[in-house]
Design goal:
single chain; 218 residues; alpha/beta; Rossmann fold; 6 helices; 5 strands; FMN dependent NADH:quinone oxidoreductase; FMN-dep_NADH:Q_OxRdtase_AzoR1
Length: 218
């Protein structure tokens, strides 16, 4: 049975988080198709990873039999996280925009799993071709042609880090204007916000069903 790696990063719980709400829709549809499949779940906001340090970084560039005992110990977490990624048939990531970019907890995860010569830095990495669905929610509008288009460092960055770096096949689901109902200054955008939210849930469910069907036939 296929394995789903699911990462949430929003600091807000449950329905209070647009990204968590949409990743939950994806996961619900996926599990309906694969009730006996494996789900590896990490809530990086509830249980944040430590930042990559010098020992763990250096260990990633050394052959396993050349690592010092300290490097072996420091690399253990990177090995666990990279193995989870390599095990996954599909990766699901909730990536809300915080201060124009991704949560620092997601950046920490990336720093651990990007291992040159293994998951990255080669024409064919150990994660090449794995489908990844990223729910990139944001409180405002940052799409092409909007006044804040140049402030968008979520899909731009993750497209490179996940796609070009790790070789994943990335699809973005983007609920926008999520603050419209709570910010009086955005009152005239509520209808657009609701439409964006509904489309995000529809897109997430459709993508989950598409991928679930693909792996059921594999």
């Amino acid at each position: 049975m296929p394995t789903l790696l699911h990462l949430d990063t929003s600091v807000f719980p449950g329905e209070a988080s647009a990204s968590r709400s949409v990743t939950a829709t994806f996961r619900k549809e996926w599990e309906a198709q694969h009730p006996n499949g494996t789900v590896i779940y990490r809530d990086l906001a509830a249980e944040p990873l430590p930042h990559l340090d010098g020992l763990a970084a250096a260990a990633g560039f050394a052959a396993p039999d050349q690592r010092s005992p300290e490097q072996h110990s420091a690399f253990a977490l990177r090995e666990t996280l990279a193995s989870e990624l390599e095990q996954a048939d599909v990766v699901l990531i909730g990536a809300p925009m915080y201060n124009f970019t991704i949560p620092s907890t997601l950046k920490a995860w990336l720093d651990h799993v990007i291992i040159m010569g293994r998951t990255a830095g080669a024409e064919q990495t150990t994660t090449s071709g794995t489908p990844a669905v990223v729910v990139a929610s944001r409180g405002g509008g940052y799409g092409p042609g909007t006044p804040r288009e140049s402030f968008e460092f979520v899909t731009n960055y993750l497209g490179k880090a996940l796609g070009d770096g790790l070789g994943l096949d990335v699809t973005f689901v983007v609920p926008e204007l999520t603050l419209a109902r709570s910010n009086p200054a955005m009152a005239d955008l509520v209808e657009l916000s609701d439409a964006s939210k509904a489309k995000a849930h529809e897109d997430a469910a459709a993508k989950a069903k598409e991928l679930a069907t693909r792996f059921a036939a594999a």
